């Protein structure tokens, strides 16, 4: 397999971010968001085609795990953490 194109990498990154945002738990959500950003930032410096392909395959595998885990996470409810913003209710003024 040849190296992934820029658009393929961006698409994979967006999918990972979308699925990381699917976690109801604040700590898990932010962990996976930080992990994705760090992993893709570190992989952007890769020059070796073999290392690029390994990073690509690892990211695709992690996306599969992330999809399954975010679905499971949505089955459970968690209390809001202190650091999470509360939902603000918008009042309609007449």
Task: List the keywords.
3 helices, 62% helix, Complex1_LYR_dom, mainly alpha
Q: Report the uncertain regions.
A: none
Roughly what percent helix?
55-70%
As a percent range, the share of strand residues is: under 5%
Give, in order, the helices and strands: HHH
* Shape verdict: elongated
As for the number of domains, it is 1
What structural class results from the helix and strand content?
A: mainly alpha
Distance between the termini: 62 Å
How large is the count of helical segments?
A: 3
The mean pLDDT is 87
Number of strands: 0
- Biggest β-sheet: count, sense, barrel? none
Give the C-alpha Rg. 17 Å
Structural overview:
The chain has one domain. Helix 1 packs parallel to helix 3. The protein has 94 residues and is mainly α. It is built from 3 helices and no strands. Helices cover 62% and strands 0% of the residues.
